[in-house]
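Final report, section 2: Outcomes. Of the targets proposed, F-box protein AT5G49610-like beta-propeller domain-containing protein is the one most frequently requested by collaborating groups, and we therefore present its record in full.
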Amino acid sequence: MTSILVLDLTSSSCSTIKLPDGVFNEGDTVLSRANDSGVYLVHLKELQLCFWLLRGTNGSVGDWLLVDTISLDDMCDNLRLTNCTVEDGHNTAVCIKAVGNNAEFVFLVMGQCILYLDVRSRALRQEYEKSEYYHSHGCWICPYMMVWPPIFPVLKE
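The predicted structure is given below as tokens.
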């Protein structure tokens, strides 16, 4: 697929937005909300993450701006994860599981490892190692954003 279907609930209309050149929606792309009325598209091809930004609503290919590219190859080698490589030493397939608002962070799955990438600092770390049960049944990652430290209401006496 070379476009994204957009449903405008306000006007009850549908439209399409063309993806950037060379990007195909084959399960390796995730959208993320941008603060300034735009959307980020995070695209993974092999071990290369590309971050595209679309501002406005025109939807033509020229509206996409490549804002960042991160190679995961060296980052994965530096982690030396035992369950994330196959026998010949090459990295197993990587997939995007979740992306935070403004594409600030990305959760990735590689083999049995769940990895967290802080995009701003370019820091990759292992967050979790899945058991065989979760490896065969898949997993869901739903990031929850909150104010820190949390503010609780005052209890009435």
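The chain has two helices and ten strands.
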